[in-house]
């Protein structure tokens, strides 16, 4: 799923559907943003995969793909919307090197407010270059 997320983020969200993703890179008022359309689209895919995998003989594998899309969406919401962007107010302090690294990579990604020129399109993986030197973790 991480490869699909990276590709989708780089070539679709920062590509032909930038109009949906752009407000995510700028401060805005309100809880919802156009970027949330992607959650709706992926939910529709997940539901369709569940249905096809459950009811169409020979397509059972789609059930598991739908489950993967659902699980990834849950992780995305918790990590991206709750922990990184604080769209839901909770107290969270990143202590592990892994969490610090992926959060730092995401913040680097958001330094660019345009369609092009961004880096760090991943979600659950970030290269070691985003790890701060001397960061002990847990």
The share of residues in helices is 40-55%
How many DSSP H or I helices?
5
Sequence of secondary-structure elements: HHHHH
Low-pLDDT sequence parts: none
Largest sheet, in brief, is: none
Radius of gyration: 17 Å
| Class from secondary-structure proportions | mainly alpha
Shape, principal axes of CA atoms: globular
Counted beta strands:
0
Q: State the separation between the terminal residues, measured CA to CA.
A: 27 Å
The fraction of residues assigned to DSSP E strands is: under 5%
* Average pLDDT metric: 92
Oligomer: single chain
Characterise the protein shown here:
The protein has a domain at 2-94. Helix content is 54%, strand content 0%. The protein has 5 helices and no strands. The chain is globular. The model has no long low-confidence stretch (mean pLDDT 92).
In short:
With 138 residues, this protein is mainly alpha-helical. Helices cover 54% and strands 0% of the residues.
What secondary-structure arrangement, pairings included, does this model have?
Elements: H1 2-16, H2 18-21, H3 37-55, H4 61-84, H5 97-109
Structure keywords:
138 residues; mainly alpha
